[in-house]
User: Which sequence fits this backbone?
């Protein structure tokens, strides 16, 4: 057995899967509460990624950074999460709020409208060119040199560790928040039955705004992690990522937070292993074929429980 | 606005038989009270077939009125989109099945036509043979996709069909040499990213369709026939069954409806129409590429259907017209400029009542503009020396009123962001404050248009389409011609 | 009432749109004018996933036209842009628009080889010349498009063998060694990859042909398949920064294979991994001293980096401008046919690409050659062949 190949694919899959998982979390949260497929979510991720890129430029560009990598990273994450969160709240307020009682498919179209608007505004303002975080160049590449080496010589760079650990921390924080806090409980109640929650005195508006803020902030963080590991940022990056995140959310059981994480990892691993072992050309096709099989065997997702039909 | 769905008040005893599936009693009564609701009711008294014939007749005159092949081509594209939206209307609008792999059926039809009538495999069947084969094959494919998806509900169905659509694109995009498990075979099935070129045009009985105009009429006839067929199905037992399935699958099942069979039929029927559209696409373009059948096209078709009103045949026509025609009109900067200013004006006229408020805002904006222009011309003269987006008297007036800079640079981008924030701000304000805030916002909109947006018409076009989608859906959540329904949760 | 107003607005908008369409239908069928203002159409993927390429192509062509008009040259030129989103069917709708617009006498673009094929019939029937700065499939100029289709970039038939030769002759790739070729699943990339693959296989090299979607941004899974016998990784990519990421991830995984990029990756600001090779048909625009002023002027209007697919469109606009000027001086009327015939004869003694420009009988660049560059430790490009 070629352990080098196996471990490399494993690392690649887990890293990519963590980014998908973070985006999928936001997707799943919003879905849980509003039953809305927020197709603009991928573009929030794009904006987060660009905010991170802006911070790098602000501190002198990737080649001659004026601050420590860790400080930079912290500032990037905070700014991207804040920007993502605020953007999410604004999208909810102006594109979705009035459609809460409308047929479910109507906000789908406003979501597409928001996606068009954000992608093309980004191109108008920032240009269509690919930009690069170039984390390989930060302080002479010190960040990538750090990290640890697995048996058979597979090196795991610090950015990959940061992305995975960061994603795990955010997920745990979110789970704790949803399980323990007052607002988290309100979210679960709203997601279970919005009308009943409102009757119990829960301020549903506030809960929805909080959901959008948190979910979008996670997408913003995912944007920074993605840039840190995979370097590139461009206005249309959100489209494909949003699609994969949507898939991850559904595969894991939409509305189910641990499910979103598992879905993200499943997709990341399926992608990298099919590239490594089967065929790079048809890796996407293979991933989709696997997922179709999964969905048919478990129609409500890996962790999803068969919904009790309310009549 | 199909007859069977129109809210009609007060209900006479003999009319109580008309199934009003999904029409909430309160919503219906409420709709009947507004002026427009009354107008709608009067219009719905006209048989909808009359409207369709009127549409067909007007459309048939388009190529006669203009010798411009581009207009005819856009007409053809629009008809193709209408046909696609019509098929999607069956799956999504009637049966309520969110099918995100729909576009693959379109592609499958196109590729089937391409493979059976091109030098790719040296097969050149007659069009009269290829079209039925392609349509039936697509219907069978739709059936096969739906088969394992029967047990899936709601968004799980959406995701499996999305996978199917992606699977289709990936396979066709790479189908020129299959590499699998390290085993490569050079079978050129789909031409890969180079597609299948040199496809035969429609030909039958020794005659060939070669002009865009010819294809326009073919598409119009096919669309009208398909529309009529769907109209009949809509009013049939199956059509009613679909709608009850959409409203409440559980209740439908309890009533003894063959839910699974209904789903399969809806899928196949929708797929067949998409396949039909695909054959026309392939024949006119004489080449097919997998890239044409990816998610962006799906998004456009969905936008048309939902904007027009899912479940409404008239909505299919209106939605496709609005989306495709505005996409094309906005291509040309001159037209886009007029559309932009007229849209602003139309919004103001519709939103601001009474008239004196409108007069104050308009007058205020014009006055505000002259003041700003005067101040800026002394402070930063480069901002008044640019040229306007359009010529003529309107352009020269704009130059004396709005700021123009040929190289707005970063300031222009800053203004764009400011404009977006200002518009959102105006939306949150109320009363006179809102009217006051409108004045600088409107002026800012004109300045941003002249300096930033019109410079990049291709990007602006899509920004505007995004805004139009958001605004229209917020204005009429049920779609322009859809019936207001209450979602049963 | 409020609902009535809103719907009224919608109706008004729809009416206005309909009115604009109706007027545009009649307005654009205006007759060709003499040499007052002459229009050139531009087909490019200005928005969408390939927007980075298309917007750059548009900006370079636009920059030439603006410079031309500002310097007072006659006739005044106008660039009409048409966004194709790299979608052949959208390209043919826009091509139809250009064909129907009688003020347009020539077309720059489209970008992709498949798009060229899709629009060929429409533009050809309308008598329009069309010129691409990025469609490099060999067969395009060999066939029936002769006299209508031109390109100012050498085709894959020139680049492929040059690259394969360099690998076997200079980089020491021998029979039995491995080369990995990764295409990005669109027609430029697969076409070039096929040619290089065939040339290497003929020499007995073990070729591992892989492909990733252009939308992908992770290559580490693929790089795991690079073995110690893999000497070279050939990347016919359209996006330079993807080649950069590939090289960086290759290095991070401790692999020693040499990265070799095609002309699509030729951009020293994006792809600058030391030790890698790039092939290109001209010197680096950003390094030619004589071009410094033009490049600086360009960046003043369009800040940010540029792609290798951009500058050839500046030259195409220049070719058209020269041809149109000559036609106007001779006959006073710029017709499509006259421009097309003149374009075939036009030659520029020097261009910003650093080479003279003239089309051969097929419409390809006359005397085209490819150069190989090696990326230096400081990230700059140095010509090595």
Assistant:
């Amino acid at each position: 057995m070629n352990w080098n190949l196996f471990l490399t694919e494993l690392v690649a899959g887990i890293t990519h899967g963590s980014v998908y998982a973070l985006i999928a979390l936001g997707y799943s949260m919003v879905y849980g509460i509003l039953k809305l497929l927020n197709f603009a979510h991928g573009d929030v991720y794009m904006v987060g990624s660009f905010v991170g890129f802006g911070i790098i430029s602000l501190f002198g560009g990737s080649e001659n950074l004026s601050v420590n990598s860790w400080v930079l990273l912290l500032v990037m994450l905070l700014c991207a999460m804040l920007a993502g969160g605020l953007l999410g709240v604004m999208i909810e307020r102006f594109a979705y709020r009035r459609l809460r009682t409308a047929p479910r498919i109507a906000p789908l179209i406003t979501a597409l409208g928001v996606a068009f608007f954000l992608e093309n505004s980004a191109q108008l303002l920032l240009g269509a060119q690919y930009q690069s975080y170039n984390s390989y160049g930060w302080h002479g590449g010190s960040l990538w040199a750090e990290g640890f080496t697995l048996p058979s010589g597979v090196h795991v760079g610090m950015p990959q560790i940061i992305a995975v650990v960061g994603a795990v921390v955010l997920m745990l924080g979110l789970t704790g928040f949803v399980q323990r806090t007052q607002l988290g409980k309100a979210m679960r109640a709203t997601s279970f039955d919005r009308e009943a929650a409102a009757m119990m005195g829960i301020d549903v508006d506030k809960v929805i705004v909080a959901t959008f803020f948190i979910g979008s902030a996670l997408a913003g963080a995912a944007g920074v992690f993605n840039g840190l590991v995979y370097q590139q940022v461009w206005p249309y990056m959100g489209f494909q990522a949003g699609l994969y995140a949507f898939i991850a959310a559904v595969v894991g059981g939409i509305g189910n937070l641990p499910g979103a994480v598992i879905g993200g990892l499943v997709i990341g691993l399926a992608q990298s292993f099919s590239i490594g072992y089967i065929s790079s050309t048809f890796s996407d096709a293979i991933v989709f074929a696997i997922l179709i099989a999964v969905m048919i065997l478990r129609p409500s997702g890996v962790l999803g429980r068969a919904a009790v039909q309310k009549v | 606005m199909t007859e069977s769905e129109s809210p009609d008040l007060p209900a006479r005893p003999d009319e109580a038989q008309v199934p009003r599936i999904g029409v909430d009693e309160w919503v219906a009564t409420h709709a009947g009270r507004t002026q427009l609701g009354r107008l709608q009711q009067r219009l719905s008294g006209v048989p909808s077939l009359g409207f369709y014939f009127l549409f067909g007749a007007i459309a048939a005159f388009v190529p006669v009125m203009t010798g411009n092949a581009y207009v005819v081509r856009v007409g053809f594209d629009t008809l193709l989109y209408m046909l696609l939206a019509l098929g999607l209307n069956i799956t999504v609008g009637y049966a309520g099945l969110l099918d995100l792999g729909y576009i693959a059926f379109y592609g499958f039809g196109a590729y089937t036509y391409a493979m059976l009538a091109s030098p790719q495999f040296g097969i050149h069947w007659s069009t009269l043979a290829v079209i039925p084969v392609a349509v039936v094959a697509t219907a069978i494919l739709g059936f096969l996709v739906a088969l394992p998806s029967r047990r899936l509900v709601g968004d799980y169905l959406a995701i499996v069909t999305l996978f199917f659509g992606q699977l289709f694109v990936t396979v066709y995009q790479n189908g020129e040499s299959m590499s699998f498990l390290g085993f490569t075979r050079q079978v050129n099935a789909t031409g890969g990213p180079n597609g299948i070129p040199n496809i035969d045009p429609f030909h039958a009985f020794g005659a060939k369709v070669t002009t865009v105009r010819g294809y326009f009429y073919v598409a119009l006839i096919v669309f009208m026939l398909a529309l009529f067929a769907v109209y009949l199905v809509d009013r049939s037992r199956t059509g009613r069954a679909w709608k009850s399935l959409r409203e409440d699958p559980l209740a439908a099942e309890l009533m003894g409806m063959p839910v699974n069979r209904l789903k399969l039929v809806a899928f196949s029927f929708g797929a067949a129409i998409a396949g039909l559209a695909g054959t026309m696409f392939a024949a006119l373009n004489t080449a097919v590429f997998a890239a044409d059948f990816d998610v962006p096209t799906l998004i456009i078709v969905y936008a048309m259907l939902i904007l027009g009103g899912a479940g409404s045949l008239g909505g299919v026509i209106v939605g496709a017209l609005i989306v495709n025609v505005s996409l094309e009109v906005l291509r040309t900067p001159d037209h886009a400029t007029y559309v932009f200013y007229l849209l602003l004006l139309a919004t103001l006229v519709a939103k601001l009542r009474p008239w004196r408020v409108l007069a104050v805002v308009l007058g205020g904006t014009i006055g505000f503009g002259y003041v700003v222009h005067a101040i800026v011309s002394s402070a930063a003269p480069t901002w008044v020396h640019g040229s306007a987006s359009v010529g003529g008297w309107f352009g020269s007036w704009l130059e004396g009123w709005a700021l123009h800079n040929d190289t707005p640079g970063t300031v222009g981008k800053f203004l764009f962001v400011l404009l977006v924030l200002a518009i959102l701000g105006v939306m949150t304000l109320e009363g006179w404050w809102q009217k006051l805030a409108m004045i600088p916002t409107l002026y800012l909109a004109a300045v941003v248009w002249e300096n930033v947006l019109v410079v990049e018409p291709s990007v602006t076009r899509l920004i505007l389409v995004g805004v139009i989608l958001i605004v229209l859906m917020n204005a009429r959540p049920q779609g322009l011609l859809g019936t207001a329904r209450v979602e049963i949760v | 009432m409020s609902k009535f107003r809103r719907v009224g607005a919608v109706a008004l908008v729809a009416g206005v749109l309909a009115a604009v369409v109706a007027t545009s239908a009649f307005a654009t069928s205006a007759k060709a004018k003499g040499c007052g203002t002459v229009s050139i159409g531009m087909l490019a993927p200005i928005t969408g996933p390939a927007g980075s390429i298309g917007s750059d192509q548009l900006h370079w062509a636009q920059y030439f036209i603006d410079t031309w008009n500002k310097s007072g040259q006659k006739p005044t030129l106008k660039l009409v842009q048409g966004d194709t989103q790299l979608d052949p069917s959208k390209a043919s709708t826009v091509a139809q628009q250009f064909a129907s617009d009688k003020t347009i006498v020539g077309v720059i673009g489209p970008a992709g080889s498949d798009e060229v094929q899709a629009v060929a019939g429409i533009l050809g029937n309308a008598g329009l010349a069309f010129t691409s700065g990025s469609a490099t499939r060999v067969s395009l100029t060999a066939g029936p498009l002769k006299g209508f289709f031109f390109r100012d970039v050498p085709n894959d038939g020139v680049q492929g063998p040059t690259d394969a030769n360099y690998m076997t002759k200079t980089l020491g790739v021998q029979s039995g060694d491995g080369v990995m070729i990764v295409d990005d699943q669109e027609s430029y990339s697969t076409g070039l990859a096929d040619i290089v693959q065939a040339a290497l296989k003929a020499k007995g090299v073990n070729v591992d042909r892989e492909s990733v979607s252009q939308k992908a941004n992770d290559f580490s899974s693929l790089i795991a398949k690079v073995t110690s016998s893999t000497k070279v990784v050939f990347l016919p990519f359209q996006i330079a920064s993807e080649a950069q990421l590939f090289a960086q991830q290759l290095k991070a995984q401790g692999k020693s294979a040499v990265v070799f990029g095609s002309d699509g990756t030729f951009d020293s600001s994006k792809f600058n991994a030391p030790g890698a090779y790039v092939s290109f048909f001209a010197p680096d625009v950003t390094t030619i001293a004589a071009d410094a002023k033009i490049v600086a002027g360009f960046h003043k209007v369009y800040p940010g980096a540029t792609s290798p697919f951009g500058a050839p469109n500046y030259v195409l606009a220049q070719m058209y401008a020269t041809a149109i000027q000559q036609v106007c001086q001779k006959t006073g009327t710029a017709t499509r046919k006259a421009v097309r015939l003149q374009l075939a004869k036009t030659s520029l003694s020097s261009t910003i690409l650093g080479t003279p420009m003239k089309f051969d009988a097929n419409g390809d660049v006359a005397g085209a050659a490819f150069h190989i560059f090696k990326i230096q430790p400081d990230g700059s490009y140095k010509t090595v062949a």
About this structure: Residues 133 and 227 of chain A are 6 Å apart (CA to CA). The radius of gyration of chain A is 19 Å. Chain A has one domain: 18-238.
